[in-house]
Automatic annotation (TrEMBL):
Organism: Thlaspi arvense
Assigned keywords, A-Z: ATP-binding, Coiled coil, Kinase, Nucleotide-binding, Transferase
Pfam families in the record: Guanylate_kin (PF00625)
One GO MF term attached to the UniProt entry: ATP binding
Lineage, highest ranks first: Eukaryota, Viridiplantae, Streptophyta, Embryophyta, Tracheophyta
Keyword ATP-binding: yes
Catalytic activity from the UniProt record: GMP + ATP = GDP + ADP
Protein name as it appears in the record: guanylate kinase
Length: 387
């Protein structure tokens, strides 16, 4: 299928008022993007005020204008936008006068992730994904029964490679253990709040595990990827299955204990659960190990018998043998001229500095895009030219 034609950027004169005060500098900055029998109205900040620009949909057939569920953290309001319809149900949005790390965004309106979420939520859905230069390593999903040593292995990895890996801090409704701190080990959440956030599509995955609710918010993954680090998720098998079914491309690792007896000994020695909870976790472990080994979710299975040996194998499969632990991946932002005009030539976007003096030009090559919501859109190749 060919690429849809570039759309027309309309600056709507009147903005929209539904009772929320709009900052004067962001008034009248809404743009409209035509896509089939719908117009996407992007910009202004009448709904979410200063936090993220607003998205509304105008259905041309019914002449109805409504607000979809907007997933992901979107761009902050700006003094102007340009947009282009790309193939595969995405709209490229370029901000004027923004910081390098907030300049390029993709609004997904009909990608497989959006279609999946639409089905799940039973409502119209769009999703924001920030555009970043180059490619980063895939997130790592680590699963395994409780007490097998996932947390221990992840801590070793983060200690040795502090600037390479970042931990996705999950939400849970279970109570904190004595050494656990809110927002470091988990976001300890109220069940009703977490359920509401799940309904609003804020979670990449969630599951009921050993009697409590656990989940990975989209924001938790974004925080890590935005810091330029490779994201590690410590989640149960049900969660791993959901991530596998999502559009997040990840490396899946399952950790097995040497025996059930050893698993039980480790859980007891950890001393964090009551006898009743230990029994529940051990009962669940049998099914988890069976599924972890046979479901095809996990591309890699590690046996955590001797901790040092297991850690060495983990580093080997992550390609970390002989890697300098100090240097992490750095994601650079995309620096655009503050005032600019934008044009599109096939899969290249040309951003030209406005004005008569020596003008700089930035060419964004979108031919190798990958990733996308939930998370970042990667693979933008950038050429900066000073004329
Ligand atoms: N290879 C090993 N040999 C002996 N003890 C180990 C080994 N790996 C981890 N342990 C110990 O086992 C206990 C459980 O480990 P850890 O807390 O990392 O498990 P986990 O898989 O993260 O559990 P949960 O899913 O409940 O969070 C800890 O006390 C840890 O020190
Ligand atoms: N599906 C998810 N599972 C998660 C998440 N965070 C943790 N977990 C799993 O829960 C059990 C129990 O953890 P504990 O801290 O109470 O011992 C463990 O297997 C974790 O992997 C999550 O966000 N989603």
């Amino acid at each position: 299928m060919g690429e849809a034609p570039a759309f027309v950027v309309d600056h709507l004169e009147n903005g929209h008022s539904n009772g929320v005060v709009v900052k004067p500098e962001y008034k009248n900055t809404e743009i409209s993007v035509d896509l089939g029998d719908r117009t996407f109205l992007i910009g202004g900040n009448h709904e979410r005020n200063n936090f993220s620009i607003c998205v509304q949909i105008h259905d041309k057939n019914s002449d109805n204008r409504f607000s979809p569920v907007v997933l992901g953290t979107g761009p902050k309001p700006s003094k102007g936008y340009s947009a282009f319809v790309l193939k595969q149900g995405r709209i490229l949005v370029i901000k004027k006068g923004s910081t390098p790390n907030d300049s390029i965004w993709f609004l997904e309106v009909d990608t497989s992730y959006v279609r999946e979420q639409r089905k799940l939520l039973g409502r119209e859905v769009v999703a924001w994904s920030k555009g970043v230069k180059g490619n980063a390593e895939k997130p790592i999903v680590i699963s395994g029964p409780s007490g097998v040593g996932k947390g221990t292995l992840i801590s070793m990895l983060m200690k040795e490679f502090p600037s390479t890996f970042g931990f996705s801090v999950s939400h849970t409704t279970r109570s904190p253990r004595s050494m656990e701190r809110d927002r470091i080990h988990y976001h300890f959440a109220d069940k009703s709040v977490m359920e509401k956030d799940i309904k609003e599509g804020k979670f990449l995955e969630f599951a009921s595990v050993h009697g409590n609710l656990y989940g990975t918010s989209i924001e938790s993954v974004e925080v890590v990827t935005d810091s330029g680090k490779r994201c590690i998720l410590d989640i149960d098998v049900q969660g791993a299955r959901s991530v596998r079914a999502s559009s997040l491309d990840a490396t899946f690792i399952f950790v097995c204990p040497p025996s059930m007896k050893e698993l039980e000994d480790r859980l007891r020695a950890r001393g964090t659960e009551t006898e009743e909870q230990i029994q529940k976790r051990l009962r669940n472990a049998e099914a988890e190990i069976k599924e972890g080994r046979s479901s095809g979710i996990f591309g890699l299975i590690l046996y955590n018998d001797n901790l040092e040996e297991c850690y060495k194998k983990l580093k080997t499969i992550l390609g970390l043998d002989g890697v300098d632990p100090v240097n992490g991946v750095e994601i650079e932002g995309i620096d655009l001229p503050t005032e600019h005009t934008v044009s599109k030539l096939e899969e290249k976007i040309i951003v030209q500095e406005a004005g008569d003096a020596q003008r700089s030009k930035v060419v964004l090559d979108l031919s190798s895009l990958n990733g996308g919501a939930p998370g970042r859109t990667r693979g933008i190749l950038v050429d900066a030219i000073v004329l």
